[in-house]
Amino acid sequence: MFKVLILILTTNLFFMLHVTGNISKYINMKYSFLSASMIVILFILTVVEGIKLWSSGDKKEKHHDCACSHDHHEHKHHHEHDYDKKKPSAGKKIKKFLAYTLVVIPAITGVIFPVATLDSQLVDAKGFSFPTLEDGSDQYGTHQVLNPDMSKFMNQADFTDLVRKESKSYIPKNNITLTDKDYLVGLEVMYNFSGAFAGKTLTMNGFTYNGPGEQPNQLFLLRFGIIHCVADSGAFGMMIQFPKNVHIPNDQWYQATGTMDTVYYPQMKTKIPVLKVTSYKIIPKPKDPYVYRNTLN
Fold first, then answer.
1. Number of C-beta neighbours around residue 114 at 10 A
2. Contacts 24+ apart (CB under 8 A), 27-33
3. Residue of 94, 148, 214, 277 with fewest CB within 10 Å of its CB?
4. Does domain 120-292 have CATH number 3.40.630.10?
5. Residue 4, SS3?
6. Taking the model in full, what pTM does it have?
7. Angle of helix 156-167 relative to helix 183-192, nearest 10 degrees?
8. What is the phi-psi region of residue 104: left when phi exceeds 0, alpha when psi lies from -120 to 50, beta otherwise?
């Protein structure tokens, strides 16, 4: 009975994530067919377990009717022997209860509780530094900041070929607008060929973040991006620099246009791209605040 209940709740969880669109908060939507396939598989398993449960109940009823036709003494002896044999221990009952509880709780809370949108608080919680400047002993365990670095997911030769190929769509342009579709691709190209973009005009959207070690006229414009799933998400974007000092709080959504250049950022001990703002405006938070890596070619 519990197996059927767990399968129903789990199937419903993934179904509701797709119906509400919240599945995009957990995975890159180019992989959505995998979770959709899981819904079908879970539904089939639920039906199979339901049939097995119904069949076992029917067999028990037939066995009981058959046993009633035997001698009362034989029936009693058989019943007691069968009961002693199948009676589970208290320890097994507790383990079984805990195992089912650990599965049921997320299946229920995943539907009841709202999905939180990642924001600047998570940036503060994870820290704001380039993973390449950290210990480096576990490159797959570090989070990404500013530059959506695909070299973490492929060998160096393939990564170099990928970025060079993608750069051909950006370097020749003098006016560039980063959209939701190419946000991560464009940023990665700009971080890898920052010198080639000096003096070019760029327009981009994002939420504001006041990073450590900034000048009073600087802040960061970021978007949370998902490469494959939320486990490899990062806060990607660029430093923006105003002509004069500004006081803008975190998590305000802006569209900024300006001229690209590079600047030394002491906090990361390296030069990074900077957008010297010529115009900007407040924009509403997008319906989907995340951006995704939609192509590898």
1. 7
2. 27/226, 27/228, 27/229, 27/230, 28/226, 28/227, 28/228, 28/229, 28/292, 28/293, 28/294, 29/292, 30/292, 30/294, 31/228, 31/229
3. 94
4. no
5. helix
6. 0.68
7. 100
8. alpha
Lookup result for tokens 């570090």: 142
**What burial class does residue 138 get, using C-beta atoms within 10 Å of its C-beta: 0-12 exposed, 13-18 middle, 19+ buried?**
exposed
Distance (Å, whole) CA 75 – CA 67: 6
| Residue found under tokens 């890159």 | 28
Percent of the chain beyond pLDDT 90?
37
Q: Which two tokens stand for residue 71?
A: 């001698």
Report which residue type is found at 211: G
Residue-wise pLDDT for 193-210, tens only, equals 999 999 999 999 999 999
| DSSP H/E element including 292 | strand 291-292
Residue partners of 206: CB distance under 8 A and separation at least 6: 221, 222, 223, 237, 253, 254
Region 217-239: what's the mean pLDDT? 88
- What is the Cα–Cα distance from 183 to 4, expressed in whole angstroms? 43
Tokens of 9: 């709740």
Q: What is the CA radius of gyration of the chain?
A: 28
Domain boundaries, the chain: 2-112, 120-292
Say which residues have a Cβ less than 8 Å from residue 91's Cβ, sequence separation at least 6. none
8, 60, 142 from 130: Cα distances, Å: 43, 63, 9
SS3 203: strand
Distances (CA, A) of 126 to 3, 59, 123, 217, 234: 38, 56, 5, 24, 10
* Tokens of residue 198, six digits: 């000096």
Q: How far apart are CA 129 and CA 106, in angstroms?
A: 32
To the nearest whole number, what is the mean pLDDT of the chain?
Answer: 79
